[in-house]
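It would be a great kindness if you could assist me with a short task in structural biology. Thank you for your consideration; the sequence and its tokens are set out here.
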Amino acid sequence: MKELNPLNGGNKGQLITVKEVEQIYGIKAHALSQQRYCSTGLPFYKLGNRVLYSIKEIEEALKLTNIHGAWFKHHPKKK
């Protein structure tokens, strides 16, 4: 976990919430919580008690590790 300095957050790109990650990328909030607990998954930041993700870092992580493809292979969306 990285502590986010709100005065120096500009180099991380736009920061989004857990709910927004779920809406944009289809990764459930519970899965993100488990990843944070196990120190795996997408990089995240803590600002007080808020958990935030950098869109830039999410995109980089998905390209480098193919997390996105693996996620949907093992956890398909319900219809």
